[in-house]
């Protein structure tokens, strides 16, 4: 029996985990790598953006801080993915 999942549901679940999880950075990067692989395979990859401090749990590092030309990426696993429909 073959089962399928909608790309949108997969991206939503992964984005929620990448934004809200307090697990290790390595685990989040693993989720990101798996998601990117699946999106590329489905020809649906459309990039990602780093999350700001207001988009991650209190006390956790943001994906991006600073201003244009002076950005830093304290935790590059804090991402939000888009996809092609």
Low-confidence regions? none
Shape: globular
Rg (C-alpha, Å): 14 Å
Widest sheet, order of strands: 1-2
Helix content: 25-40%
Structural class: alpha+beta
Report the major sheet: 2 strands, antiparallel
Mean pLDDT: 95
* Proportion of strand residues: 5-15%
User: How many separate helices?
Assistant: 2
How many structurally independent domains?
A: 1
Distance between the termini: 26 Å
Per DSSP E runs of 2 or more residues, the count of β-strands stands at 2
SSE string, helix = H, strand = E?
Answer: HHEE
Describe this protein's structure.
- With 85 residues, the protein is an alpha+beta fold.
- The protein has one domain (7-83).
- Helix content is 36%, strand content 13%.
- The protein is built from 2 helices and 2 strands, in the order ααββ.
- The chain has helices at 7-20, 25-41; strands at 45-50, 79-83.
- The protein has a two-stranded antiparallel ribbon with strand order 1-2.
- Helix 1 packs antiparallel against helix 2 (25-41).
- The radius of gyration is 14 Å and the shape is globular.
- The mean pLDDT is 95.
